[in-house]
Specification:
Tex N-terminal region-like; 18 strands; five-stranded mixed beta barrel; globular; single chain; 5 domains; alpha+beta; Nucleotidyltransferase, domain 5
Amino acid sequence: MASSSTVKADKATPAWKIPEVISENVDVSLDVSFNVVKLLDEGATIPFIARYRKEQTGNMEVDKLREISSLVEELKTVESKIASVSAVINSQGNMSQSLNASLRNARTLHEVELLYAPFKPGHKGSLAERARKLGLEPPAMKILDGRLVALKQFINTEEKGLSNEAAVEIGIRHIIADFISKDKDIMNEVRRLCTNSNVTIETSQSKTTSKVKADKENEKKVKDFKKPKDQSYKFEQYFDYKIPVKYIQSHQVLAINRGEDKKILVVKVIIPDFVKNKLTLFSHRKWIHHNTCDQARILIQKSVTDAYDRLIQPQMSRLIRSDLTKKAEKESILVFASNLNSLLLTPPVRGKTVLGVDPGFSHGCKCAVISVTGQILDTFIVHLNYKSQNTFEDQQKIIDAVNKFRCEVIAIGNGVACRETEKAIGNLIQKKRFNVRAIAYCIVDECGASIYSVSDEAKKEMPQLDPSLRGAVSIARRLQDPLSEFVKVEAKHLGVGMYQHDISESRLKTSLDSVVEECVSFVGVDINTGSECLLRRIAGLNASKAKQIVECREKNGAFLNRQQLLSVKGLGQKGFEQCAGFIRVLHDFNDPDIRQKCEETAEPECDSEVSAKSGRGRKRKAGTTRKAKKIKLDENQAPNPLDMTAIHPESYHIAMSFLKELGMSVLDIGQSRFIDRVTQEVAVKGVEKLAKSFEIGEPTMKLITDALSKPISYDIRDSFDKPLFKEGVTAIESLKVHQKLTGRVTNVTNFGAFVDIGVGQNGLIHVSQMKEGLKGHSGLQLGDHVDVEVINIDIKRQRIGLRLIRLTSS
């Protein structure tokens, strides 16, 4: 009993620590792993860790931090599973020291499930459970031990399953087979054998779908019948398909899964006989020994065969499919995340009045003129693409709007009637019908615009505007500031990946939401102009806190500095720490009034006082003093120039000390003379020397110097590819093989990249057609401009094959 009590006491405590497992699996040092896990447990967000805790993470990138965060959650789930399984086994009185040790050392849910399998209550309808209810488990265990059992003593002619000796034997075999199929050693061995053998996936068309298709092909009621309603044509390549598991791609797995769900495909996992033969020998060596009686030998051999055919092989088939699906989902989510990141970081087109056009046929093209500040100046509807007697008048409406508001760019949505609208606008530009000196047009991704136009956010923002016109407003604003507009739409509706309906919705949402948070945070948001949608995406904030910020702004006027965030209801010190560095409070310090206000409320403070209050600052040898004074801005009344930078408030004292040594004023941040002086100091001394001088980490010093050496208008998105402004219009029918074109990547998948080449249908660069030296498909990102060559055209199926020549920009 003492031993049992000891087992129960530590049943739920894993023998491993999460940081140790992270260190082993993600290839980071134990110290870094411990720091990251600690930060995550304390509630730190990934953007905050990535930017402001580089010393603790070893300059770890966001993608790796996200991977660690996901692994931490998985390991916590394993911890919870170990605790619940231990509790169940203990309640049964079946816990042993060896089992407890195995449970405590298990690191995956699969390992825990294998250990729990022999003790899990069986399904009431299973053959083994039925046999157990008949009292056949004791003789079954004796036979498994190699002992002789008189089967006749268990015969009961009035009981089904015990009517004769043969029935008793079958029941005993079912129990032994069930025991073998749940044995941890057996399952580990079969997994090893399957991994090292040529397991294949075979797919074929289901008989039901084939019959439906045949019936529809014979049906003559619909003359121009092209695509059967059963959509089976989409899976034709898998109607007679076979591929080794080790070579199957993630997109193929997801496509096969979808075809199976729709009852179009029949999928089989073919495990070679080699696995069965090897596993049978392994099982015999484990349970059949020299002293095993003949009766037990025969029954065990039959039970092993039954266990494999009826239980183990189907279980392994399910496990292989499950592993493939998990891997495919993970890879697909990574593609989604990468594409979304590129889409959100599309550079804005600033300082231009834009005419947004939401194309349409019968209902016309919805148009909206948007000012440089995003205000709606005019809205109207024209019919450019529909047979109408008013075509000339409608064209004149476009011309008048462009000329009246001096629009510089026309943004055309890429949905239905896009190419027809593009052609009409292109003709007007070519004929110089506009009086403005320069006018261009651009195709804008309108995915999710229709969803946004009927959302509560759109109703609140544009209450008097018809929903159809709201889409045109969104299209124009997506060109002016893509990030601010895209965050209004749930990420899964932005069309940045494939097979999203075949992926775990919760996992996809978690990953995409994380990417949105990172992009918004790293770009930064002006707290006095940022929308509620944008603010809620900042690291450390949420919907309720963003709402409180907006309400506070509306009630009390514009925020003067970051410190005033602490007065927002519900935003405590922890939330402030997480979000402060990503929020900007922009002021024009060239304005005499603002400059005077800042100077009037500034008060000198010595370094020692700052150190005492903040717990930070430069250390000084005992007995020494320093005459230099540091400026402390009255946080309740004055703007703070540092609030316009990416420097976190916790590092303001370092930034101020640095500027004091340079003899520069914090009020001149962003000016060219200021930037030149900071840049010169960094070039002469180097970041490493400066970091040692201020006794801080090199990453923090680099962040401070980088922030101070950039203009206030600096935007990380400026380094990405600009939107593609096109001049010509082409139809798919006019394409020719070997023709060379320029296009823009609109989607990236595991099997290739889709490119908009301006013909109304995206072309596909398959991975096999990507030039060496560009890292295959992983070298292309959504938004890249590329030179391509047409290699094949299928007008009937609207498919265009392309070969990548080169990236025209990076």
